[in-house]
């Protein structure tokens, strides 16, 4: 009887060990991207995710974060805000990720703010792809680039200084467009700029015919596109085909490489755009050299002009995780405590609750043969 009892206890102990061993072996830090991977904004979601994965793969190749590997998964929300909220809620409840990365769209991020589940969990969303003032500084939201208002302020200053004072606005009819219009109204008077036309297009679409017609009729010297990538591509195509000659400036969310690839160098030539993360051409920066080296070593699909933003978000998150954070709330606190984090010539600081983590804004233009001219 005693022997049978010892065998039973040994069997129970072995069973318990076997049950625990796989969990120990599978220990990981789960990072989730909820973003559009299909539809008009799919190009952005995939590019942001590719940049993040590039850095996470590099970290895992070096042994992970303090010895723990990162598992990165991307899920498609079709840029539908309700789907974004549902998928984030499901992930929080079923998986308890250490962080979310690279959700795309002002309306989508606003929906997460209104829902409140993300904030209540304390889990951070790092590198949210929006620069709107409506989401800046909200709990658990960490934006790793300058805001839209900062972009508009710099652009209107430049336009005013060079004398291009008749400006047309093309905007997406949603929270993104609202922020663009508010920023333009706030800055125009400072630089003697007249907003001669405003034309919107429907969210998550490329139906820009009405906007093209409005800009041709108003004949501004410059047009500012507060638009997403594929809508911007279609606007530039139609506007140029119909003889429009104004200088076109694009918001940073427009992927200039995709625009160039789809339009070709002749049509795309002269398209100017703001840059809120360092471009690959700025090889003087250690961050850019690191990105280029890892990009050359790997075979990561979907890397594009927007991928540096995802790379920066991943790098910032890993810096927070290296402080010992192993849960969503711990990672959220570590991100909020980020002060003057130098990622290699590009710094982040979340000490000011009323702004994004960076104020870097620059401009570039597509020149002859598709070359990027700073």
Automatic annotation (TrEMBL):
For this protein, the record's SUPFAM superfamilies field holds:
Periplasmic binding protein-like I
Look up the signal peptide feature and give its range. Answer: 1-25
Query: Transmembrane residues, as ranges?
Result: none
UniProt entry keywords in alphabetical sequence: Signal
Q: Which residues form a coiled coil?
A: none
Signal recorded as keyword: yes
Q: Which residues form the Leucine-binding protein domain?
A: 34-367
**What domain of life?**
Bacteria
Q: Pfam families given for it?
A: Peripla_BP_6 (PF13458)
Family, per the entry?
Belongs to the leucine-binding protein family.
Per its record, how is this protein called by name?
Amino acid/amide ABC transporter substrate-binding protein (HAAT family)
**Which species expresses this protein natively?**
Azonexus fungiphilus
């Amino acid at each position: 009887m005693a022997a049978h009892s010892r065998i039973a206890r040994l069997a129970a102990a072995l069973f318990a060990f076997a049950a625990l061993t796989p969990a120990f072996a599978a220990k990981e830090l789960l990072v989730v991207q909820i973003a559009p991977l299909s539809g008009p904004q799919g190009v952005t979601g995939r590019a942001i995710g590719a940049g993040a994965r590039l850095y996470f793969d590099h970290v895992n190749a070096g042994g992970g974060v303090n010895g723990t590997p990162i598992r990165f998964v991307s899920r498609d929300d079709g840029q539908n805000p309700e789907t974004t909220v549902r998928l984030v809620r499901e992930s929080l409840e079923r998986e308890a990720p250490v962080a979310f990365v690279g959700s795309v769209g002002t309306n989508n991020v606003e929906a997460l703010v209104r829902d409140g589940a993300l904030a209540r969990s304390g889990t951070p969303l790092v590198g949210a792809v929006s620069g709107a003032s409506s989401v800046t500084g909200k709990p658990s939201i960490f934006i790793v680039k300058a805001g839209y208002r900062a972009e508009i302020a710099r652009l209107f200053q430049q336009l005013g200084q060079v004398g291009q004072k008749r400006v047309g606005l093309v905007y997406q009819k949603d929270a993104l467009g609202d922020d663009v219009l508010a920023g333009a109204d706030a800055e125009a008077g400072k630089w003697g700029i007249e907003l001669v036309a405003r034309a919107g297009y429907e969210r998550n679409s490329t139906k820009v015919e009405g906007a093209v017609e409005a800009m041709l009729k108003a004949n501004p010297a410059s047009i500012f596109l507060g638009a997403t990538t594929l809508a911007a591509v279609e606007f530039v195509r139609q506007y140029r085909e119909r003889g429009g000659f104004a200088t076109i400036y694009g918001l940073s969310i427009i992927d200039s490489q995709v625009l160039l690839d789809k339009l070709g160098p002749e049509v795309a030539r002269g398209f100017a755009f703001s840059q809120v993360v360092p471009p690959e051409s700025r090889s003087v920066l250690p961050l850019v050299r690191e990105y280029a080296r890892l990009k050359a070593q790997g075979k990561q699909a979907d890397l594009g002009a927007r991928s540096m933003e995802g790379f920066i978000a991943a790098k910032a998150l890993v810096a927070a995780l290296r402080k010992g954070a192993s849960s969503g709330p711990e990672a959220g606190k570590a991100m909020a405590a980020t002060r003057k984090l130098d990622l290699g010539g590009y710094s982040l600081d979340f000490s000011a609750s009323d702004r994004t983590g960076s104020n870097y804004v620059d401009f570039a233009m597509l020149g002859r043969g598709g070359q990027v001219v700073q």
